[in-house]
Amino acid sequence: MSREIVLYIAASLDGFIAKEDEDLQWLFETEGEDDNGYLEMYQSIDTAIMGKKTYDYVKGITEVFPYSDKKCYVFSTSEQGSNEDVEFVNEEVIHFTKKLKEQEGSKIWMVGGAAILDAFMKENLIDEFIITVTPHILGSGIPLFKENNPQIDLILQGTKCFGQFVQLHYKVKNSITKHYM
Known about the structure:
This protein is of the alpha/beta class. The chain has six helices and ten strands; from the N terminus they run E-E-H-H-E-H-E-E-H-E-H-E-E-E-E-H.
């Protein structure tokens, strides 16, 4: 049985994860509730993967790296090796992730990076989607999903409201079938 990859992310009502200049201020100005379901998801994972831009963004807004208690991989073409928080990965993202899924462990959180998410979508690597919809119509920006993805059938696991946020929780239909066989 392989490990599941979960996408836990926020998006505007019109499907953008950031403005074109990668600004997320609109997201932080939204009234939520408690941690908006973050802790529940975070406790289900033991590994986080992200792109270098996402890593740099997180490092830029926090004094202490927030995922230091998890194994973190950052896909990068410029950084190599590791530091106290992450291991930089210079190999192809799909190949590396498929090997990672076969290792022992809990769920893997695909933190971000539009390019990594797009690659995962094209290969149908996401097993669980937890998408928090914000009360914004941005009109343009970085889309949650890019074009030309395969059809992926989902099964609704539930919805929750957190203040002004609405969280949609889906599992991939084929993923549920293969985990119960």
